[in-house]
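4'-phosphopantetheinyl transferase: structure tokens wanted.
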Amino acid sequence: MRIYVHTLENHDYSTMQNKLSFDEKERAAKFLNQGDAHAYFVKEAVKRRSLEIITGVPAENFIFKKGEFGKPQIAEKINFNTYRAKGAIVVGISSEAIGVDIAYLDPAIQLKDYAEVALTSFEHATLDNPKQLITHWALKESFLKFIGKGLHIEPSEIGFEIVDESTIKFISEHQDLAKNQCNYCLIELEGKWVISICFKENCTKLDLNFLNKQPGIQLISNTSEAEPRFFYQPLFQFLF
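Answer:
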């Protein structure tokens, strides 16, 4: 399993267009904000390039189709997720089911504004600051991507308890959801973002690749026996 992380900076990303499809280039041209266009270039280019490395298929040849719940798929039996938060993107690639999410740790978020729509009653009673709320939201997103249903399940119907650095408990009244056997890895980057990775229990390798710099990293929790390994590779070297 490979995770690619890029924190967005003021670079000229237009050279990445050769990795994108015609439709993706058209979509990028419609962004009114240059920063959003850059973020889109990076997310799609990194996704295509990482799939190219793993499958041997040229990056520009991938055709993405949506599955039953809208999750992008490719013909090659590879599972992948991408997500963009304020100032950063994450791409996860695996031969097994995987769910990844990255969230910006916004200190201005108010717990009361999200309690009913995002939290279980247990979480509402135990979480007491924005960082905890955002971390639990990232866990929910990664789990829902892992099972391939996105937000077709209400976030308030599933919850988590982060017990310690090696234990995260899944909480839900949906017995069918509780049957999903998976591990979680939570990582904080530079005090600005939290990454949540949900993956199969049989995963033996968890590699995180940082594509513009080696950031400050704090491992919040990892429930698997696979020790995270951190690598740095410059974005443009990676792409070309």
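The mean pLDDT is 85. The chain is about 30% helix and 30% strand.

Cheers.
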